């Protein structure tokens, strides 16, 4: 029995899929303590868009720490905080003609969601929030109330209230017009739907199965919210920071959410950091009304600033991500065509990609096969029926080719073992 099984809670999960002890990491590779290399198409569940120990970010971090600069500061003013805010405004918000106030809600994505829900209710004076089928927004009670997965919801231990699920894009496979049910409930005085404070949505549902909403659907949702005075919260925690191409996953739809949630890769280095962006007129907090101890982790500000300066001063990373994403899509489509009897479906946008299996256990078997060949990837979807990849955006062409070859061999081992 190891120290991990002796001391850690049964709640641990990823270590069950990858039962080795990892020791070092560089770029798109992890190394176990025996020195074996694993190509990482998991990327910290999307927290490592620029790879492990990115050398540019690491240098900035080491310089900052070596100079005895402030590490912990709650919400006090620091030079690191100022440089991040200035860089985020000049490199991300202004080029996209976006105007948001920045809330540092705490260290993780669930903190960003909780702040968004809390502020939306304060602004509107309403309680109800509309979420979508197969959504995932976090594991704290408020975030869990707008999450769709029944297993995760079941762990709450209390009723999850004040949230109403609606069908996500293509939930009914095109059988009904977009928002037919939602709009009818909003306009029918007998529907029983409480007037919503907000709608919370992901442009691409990562944990829900790599379900990518169409740009037209997102535009329709944005219009519906405006028409009915409902705030639109865009959860970009996993799909933001360039995962789908543009810095924000909703850019291609041309919408402007009222509130945006960011975390995971915003620090660029895997350090805890989260943002809740709100339109200035919605910033009605009283001082200290939403606070927490870890809202000023300066090392995360430093790496976030360097990541934005290094990768978002131009559109080269965005173009490369879209190009790599199309390459992956082509290879996934080829696997779909190769095994027509398996009923595979290729899904996703940018470098958030999935291969859906009709038999859920096949996706898990493919991931297990891939691990045995030196590749890390996970499953997603309500039944873990989707094999999901989130390669670092900095993954090289050779690494991408090597990883896809492993995936093809793993799929073949499961679907065509002869």
From TrEMBL:
Top-level class of the enzyme under EC nomenclature: transferase
GO biological process: one example: ectoine biosynthetic process
Record pathway: Amine and polyamine biosynthesis; ectoine biosynthesis; L-ectoine from L-aspartate 4-semialdehyde: step 1/3
Record-linked SUPFAM superfamilies: PLP-dependent transferases (SSF53383)
The EC number(s) this enzyme carries: 2.6.1.76
One example GO MF annotation: diaminobutyrate-2-oxoglutarate transaminase activity
Keyword DNA damage: no
Gene3D superfamilies from the UniProt entry: Aspartate Aminotransferase, domain 1, Type I PLP-dependent aspartate aminotransferase-like (Major domain)
Family membership: Belongs to the class-III pyridoxal-phosphate-dependent aminotransferase family.
PANTHER family membership: DIAMINOBUTYRATE--2-OXOGLUTARATE AMINOTRANSFERASE, DIAMINOBUTYRATE--2-OXOGLUTARATE TRANSAMINASE
Protein name: Diaminobutyrate--2-oxoglutarate transaminase
Species this chain originates from: Cellulomonas bogoriensis 69B4 = DSM 16987
């Amino acid at each position: 029995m190891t120290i991990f099984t002796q001391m850690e809670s049964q709640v641990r999960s990823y270590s069950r899929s990858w039962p080795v002890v990892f020791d070092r990491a560089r770029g798109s590779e992890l190394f176990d303590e025996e020195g074996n290399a694993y190509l990482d198409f998991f990327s910290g569940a999307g927290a490592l868009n620029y790879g492990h120990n990115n050398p540019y970010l690491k240098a900035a971090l080491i310089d900052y720490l070596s100079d005895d600069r402030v590490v912990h500061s709650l919400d006090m003013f620091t030079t690191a905080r100022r440089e991040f805010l200035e860089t985020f405004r000049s490199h991300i918000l202004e080029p996209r003609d976006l105007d948001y106030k920045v809330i540092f809600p705490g260290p993780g994505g669930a903190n960003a969601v909780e702040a968004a829900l809390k502020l939306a209710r304060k602004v509107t004076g309403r309680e109800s929030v509309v979420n979508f089928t197969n959504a995932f927004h976090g594991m704290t009670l408020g975030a869990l109330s707008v999450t769709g997965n029944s297993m995760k919801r079941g762990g709450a231990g209390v009723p999850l209230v004040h949230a109403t699920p609606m069908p996500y894009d293509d939930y009914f496979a095109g059988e009904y017009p977009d928002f037919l049910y939602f709009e009818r409930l909003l306009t029918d005085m007998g529907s029983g739907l409480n007037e919503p404070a907000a709608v919370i949505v992901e442009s691409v549902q990562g944990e829900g199965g790599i379900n990518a909403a169409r740009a037209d659907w997102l535009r329709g949702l944005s219009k519906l919210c405006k028409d009915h005075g409902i705030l639109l919260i865009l959860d970009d925690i996993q799909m933001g920071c360039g995962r789908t191409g543009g810095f924000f996953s909703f850019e291609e739809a041309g919408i402007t959410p009222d509130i945006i949630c960011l975390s995971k890769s915003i620090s660029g280095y895997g350090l805890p950091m989260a943002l809740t962006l709100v339109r200035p007129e919605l910033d009605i907090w009283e001082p200290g009304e939403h606070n927490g101890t870890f809202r000023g982790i300066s090392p995360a500000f430093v790496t976030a600033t360097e990541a934005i300066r290094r990768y978002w001063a131009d559109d080269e990373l965005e173009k490369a991500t879209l190009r790599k994403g199309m390459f992956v899509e082509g290879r996934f489509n080829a696997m779909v065509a190769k095994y027509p009897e398996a009923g595979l479906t290729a899904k996703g946008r940018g470098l958030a990609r999935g291969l859906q299996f009709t038999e859920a256990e096949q996706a898990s078997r493919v991931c297990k096969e891939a691990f045995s060949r030196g590749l890390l990837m996970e499953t997603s979807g309500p039944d873990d029926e989707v094999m999901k990849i989130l390669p670092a955006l900095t993954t090289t062409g050779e690494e991408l080719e090597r990883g896809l070859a492993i995936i093809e061999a793993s799929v073949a081992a499961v679907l065509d073992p002869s």
